[in-house]
Amino acid sequence: MTKPALALLIALILGSCTSVKQYNQQLAEKKNPKDLQEDVDYLYRKLQAYHPQLYWYISKKELDYKFDSLKSSITEPMTSGEFYYKVAPVVSSIREGHTRMLPLNKEYKSREKDSLRVKEFGYTPFSKLKFGIFDNRLYVVKNNSWNKTIKEGSEVVSVNGISAQHLLTKYRTTLTADGYVTTFTDRLLGNRFPTFFYNDFDFADSLACELRHNDTLRNVLLRRAAPKDTAKGNANVKKVKVTLTAAQRDSARSERKRRLLLGYNSDEKTYSKNLSFYKSDSSIAIMKLNDFTGGQYEKFYKSAFKKLDSLKVKTLVIDLRNNTGGSLFDVRCLYSYLADTSFCFIKKMEVTTPKSILFTTYFKDVPLVLDPFILPFYPVYFTYALSHMSKGDDGKYYFRLGKKVEKPRETRFRGKVYMLINGASFSASCIISSNLKGAKRAYFVGEETGGAFNGNVAGRMHLFELPNSKLNARIGLLCMRPEYQTEQEGRGIIPDVAITPTLDDVLKGNDPELNWVIDRVKQERGMAR
Asked: Which 8-state DSSP code applies to residue 358?
């Protein structure tokens, strides 16, 4: 390495260490009311300038009042974290699920994370637990932690003296579905409770909890790691190098390709895209799609539907429960294998100004040192984006993504389609569900989706940093409407058969939605499940 390069590397490392320290200091500092009021004004200006449907579910008069009231209420200095819980509910009142405030967390250097063994144990004792909300109560539904004395089905009554009810109420105010949907908030809050708790209280090695199981209340000190296996105990253990055989290397290579294809999530130990069959019945296929972000979707769908075609599958169950969305390209590709005829997938997308489309997060995760190689692609992106922009007869600006009319794939599925949905089916999951519902191409089972039938404001998501608190406002820039629309504004995709699993179903591994579909199929064929 040359001396200039080495000097640059050292400068970047030292700068990173300094910036982490400064960032954490700023996080703990109380900001004066005037600065925070300026942040409120800045936020509202950005929302008005770039959100194309700001008053979709709330009037301008009402939203003006909420922002004015927020400013008036800021009379004392507060930290950015305290300010977050004042401003987030106002942004949530817009009732557009993609538009929200993001909390700030203390930053840790890589060696600190390694020392604390964050990857193994998480940031709090809740990190390895799965939660669900039933009848307005918080339950542990899955225990993946080292402490197996925590019974699945235990109700969390309090944490460090704070009632679970208080925490749920607090976190609910920072969330919103699209429009007037009521199924989204608790479904998402239950699924992501450890994240909400960490955002609120930061790192914790132990938590004093009250847990209730089978009417027995007990006090438990939850720890991230077992006492004999402290967080720092094995941090510096050297890994033993293992020499693989040629067969093992081939097997490992195949597994890496498989994980890349299906979109492996190493934290959850799950795959983005899954295809299976009901027991030994190859005529009923189940496609479980956990998200529309992971995996090589074009290769997966091409292979999957080719297989369904060759096996002459008659029934396809597509499971979008807890799928909060992802890529529009992904769902459009999936729809092309389900459509009966030529189709329009999404209408032209409204933006407030052509400038909106120039905001992009495509390159945000690229390391700084690679910027010189990425910069030449910016003009290409801008030229493409602006060439797809037009001004409508109504005076508004619209962005067209892809062809207006598309043809279904040759290996499209021609059998019966059932869709499993719930309150955490959101965003892209709802765009494809709206079109399938509108085209009468699928039968829906489960809960009303968290995303609206008539679309959302997303597509391009931009983070606007408030100048003083440094909080980020996440604002959607494109109003995305599926081709099919409904007269009932502000509601999700309503299932044809409404089924909501109980706590007992979750604990026993019962799947009432899928069971209903299987029973329906078997009844139609005159067979027993």
From this structure: G
